[in-house]
Design brief:
Elements lengths: L7 E2 L6 E2 L10 H13 L23 H10 L18 H24 L4 E4 L6 E4 L4 H19 L8 H28 L6 E2 L5 E2 L5 H4 L7 H26 L3 H10 L11 H25 L6 H32 L1 H4 L1 H6 L2
Antiparallel strand pairs: 1-2, 3-4, 5-6
Length: about 350
Amino acid sequence: MEKEDATQLCRVCSAPSTSAHFGVDICRACAVFYKRAKTKGLRPPCRQGTGKCSITRVSENICRSCRFDKCAALGITYDGPMRLRANPPITLLRRVGKELRSMIARRRERELELIRTIDHLIVPHPREKIFIVRASASSAISTIAMEESLVFFAQAFPSLAKITDKEKELIFKDYFVKLGIVVCFYQTNKLFGDLFFVKMGSVITCHDDDVPIDFYYPDHHQNKEALVNSIRSFHDESGSALMPLFLKSALTEREFFALAALVLSEHEDLVISEYAQKCIRDIRDEILRDLQRYYQNDMGLYNFAVRIGNLMSLTHIILESQSHYKEIMRYFSTFFEVYNTDKIMNNLVL
């Protein structure tokens, strides 16, 4: 007699399956997906809006709505507990997202309070209050950003509390500008989608090339032309490198949160101990593991190498943009004499 092959094909995604789940010939992955969707009450919209998406495991981005409908059509039922644990453990990626949103909310409140006291232009937007301010106001806005970023740094990465204060200072100084670039692109994407015709400079302020330079820099100064040219150069160089990759990557909000953590591990030869280096590597590795679970469980992806590659490419380019930004801040400090009037800018950025 011929030996019967015990391998079946999943009736949902056609992947090989060696056993039935919920009394139906479906693979474990589809069974877990259906159980999770029922437990959480998740019913996302169809990706194509047709309700007829192809559901196969090799698909790069499985439509969760059509996958759920296909499970339900097979008569799959789940009558188990419908409540999640009262206090599920929070992953590092979720903590970073929670703290980043909190930081942005605090910055928005403080920046709005500042805006009321300075000259500004209002940018039309259907949902949010967005402004253009004079370059001289950037010092106060940067101080707000630095103070709130330091709170985020301590709350998002508690494992770094174990290293020395001097090492935390060095790491934060290196991290601040990179985090700022991520936040600005996150805000730009959130407020303007994939257009990027206006670049957010902070949580509620932006830079618009169509606004005359004399609004940003109304006073005469011998270094004005050098400063303006350096800022334009930064926007051109960083924009030409970063914007196409941001558009191509089409990052989800969770991926932006991951990027805010991953740029921590990209640095130019920080003089810190091996233990501190290990702490940073552990943060990177944990974020990548959380991303893998997010891709598989929330996005239904099983081939996510391209998305991970795009994130790592963005971290490298942001590191390069950091150098350009620091050069601008040197011009900025000379132009507005920030060295004497704002020691926080001098100590943390330069």
